Amino acid sequence: IPDKEIDRIFEVSEKEISVPYNESTIEVTVKANMDYNIVSMPDWITEITTKVVGGEEKTVVHKFKVAENKGSEARTGVIEFCNEEQSRIQVTVNQAYKVPVKFEISQTEIVLGAEKSTFELTITSSIGYQVKPEVNWIRQTAASGGNGVYTHTFEVAENTSTTAREGVIVVCNDEQMCIPVLVKQKGDMSWVDGTF
Question: What is the phi-psi region of residue 7: left when phi exceeds 0, alpha when psi lies from -120 to 50, beta otherwise?
Answer without folding.
Answer: beta
